[in-house]
Amino acid sequence: xxxxxxxxxxxxxxxxxxxxxxxxxxxxxxxxxxxxxxxxxxxxxxxxxxxxxxxxxxxxxxxxxxxxxxxxxxxxxxxxxxxxxxxxxxxxxxxxxxxxxxxxxxxxxxxxxxxxxxxxxxxxxxxxxxxxxxxxxxxxxxxxxxxxxxxxxxxxxxxxxxxxxxxxxxxxxxxxxxxxxxxxxxxxxxxxxxxxxxxxxxxxxxxxxxxxxxxxxxxxxxxxxxxxxxxxxxxxxxxxxxxxxxxxxxxxxxxxxxxxxxxxxxxxxxxxxxxxxxxxxxxxxxxxxxxxx
Length: 293
What we know:
about 290 residues; alpha/beta; TIM Barrel; 12 helices; about 50% helix; globular
């Protein structure tokens, strides 16, 4: 099983007391479905996964899957520090109806390749749901090499790899090294244009919260072989993509939604709202894109 296209990574909104706002989360799901994304991904980086307890994580997965009502596949983030905890979250997401599971190695002690392989293997033997391996050198401090990712792709239900390295050749090299059943996805926003040119199956992005139509138009042009159109749509959003990454996904996405006249709720502490000077800069970017309220 492969996902395709634009995979929208959901913000986890909270109320003024810091509790997850499930009604607002449902509204975000409905809006992204209406805007045309191809899949939904709760509990990614923008979903503030590290700041939620186990019960909150399970409740977020339930809310998103129930709100989606089978209209789109749901890719659930299940990563945790320990293998046992990750297995528990993976099993819960599978029972809840997730179409696929996203799995990131532990981000505390730097793990060896054998430890990472054992981590993925234990999850894969515990569930039958397709697994997306996630290589994110920015949050884990480890940039997993192509040869090792290809080794992970040999695990029975690893069918997808999300690649967030800034190496412009890595997606092409992964596609060449991995089994044919393995699809590769863009995980770093600034690599979207290059990634599609190298044959990526989709783009995993929090930018869809703010500018879904831009991501979708880039994808459509890339799939149609319209290089000029893809270049144009990428160029029209690159300032936003860089801004979102440079200043922290949760706070920038929340600010972007507010500036578009949409309710983004509150962030879970210790995260705080975007600083006023940065919000003014973001407003300038959105005005240039013509997507402010």
